[in-house]
Amino acid sequence: MPRACAVVVALSLVACAPQGPSVRERRAADLDALVTAVTTLHPDPFGARPEASWRADVADVRARAASMSADEFRFAVATLTNLGDRNGHGGVFPTDQPPGVGVWPLRLYAFADGWYVVDARDASLRGARLLAIGGTPVEDVAAALAPMVPRDNPHSLRARLASYVVVPAFLRGAGLRDGPLTVVDAGGVTRDVTPPLVTPGEYAALAGLDVPQIPLGLPRPAYAPADAPWWHVRRGDALVVGFERVVGETPEGRTLRRFADRVRADVAARRPRVVVVDVRRNPGGDDHTALPLVTLLRELRSSGIAVRVLVSRATYSAAPLVLARLRGAVRFYGEPTGGGSSAFGNPSSQALPHSGIVFHVAGAAADAEGPPFAAIEPDVPVGVTWRDWRNGVDAVLDAALR
Length: 402
Description:
The chain is an alpha/beta fold. The chain is built from 13 helices and 16 strands.
């Protein structure tokens, strides 16, 4: 065959080769998969978000999908999987996205006096106050991202936002600039920085988010064991009990029942004036396992010992369900809890077939005993400021010990 003819034949074969599905077709298939997952796996997907409105939003995204950037499509998917209040276990979370979705390695917290960097890979950023991202004030950035953030109530939304504002892809998807970050560092110098990105897994390790659904809280105090789901320490004439996870037994064989017995023995040996239970970092677990601790606290209260419980926006999922059994018997200190008396949990992880976007869909409902509530409101509200936290002052614990 002459060379010219061979070239013509080769070009013809290329022209006739099957082309993959178009962007429109791929994203339509992703949306079909999303709709199927939400409507078949969730026990009540439209309890907080009207179905007609949700389906109209799906249709709108479908119509615009082909013209969206990858980040815009991810943001749109996240808003569709966010089913409103009581649905904080389902949606798109930062820490289980594909490794290519980079994250700034900053552990942020919105204190009563501003957003601060509690921890960072770059030590020079620890203690910095975050003012803006890409020239947009951080509170406005948070408001723009809120539609994509799963929540049970406004308090778990507030807790989670700290882990969303550090994802440049989320910022771009919401139509925001992805940096630089304007901070006032610990030395009082205002500067613009753009930290190098890390993978979602590396960020999860820095922020202590071993489960994607955990609302971001403050680190444990230095006196609390790092690996213990429950612990207790003496503070003068008070006993402080840490309740970090709602689990009945650890992989090593430690049980909540034996822990409760040890606390009971400690109280019998040296009767404290007050027992303070710290549940501020408890993201939940299995509320059916908590009976030994609930029984103990009721016993203490019946014996005349004051029982005071510390709660925060990171007190979430099964933790408020357990605490509901103690309402009226104990006093709560701190912030409103990130969860309430009713939640949709037991989520399953899903990945869209073409974009690879990972999202979760709740598979079961859980309800606490007694009257319904959106959050446990503290009897004694105590805000947490950066100034106190930086200086090692625990205003919530101090209030409960008084």
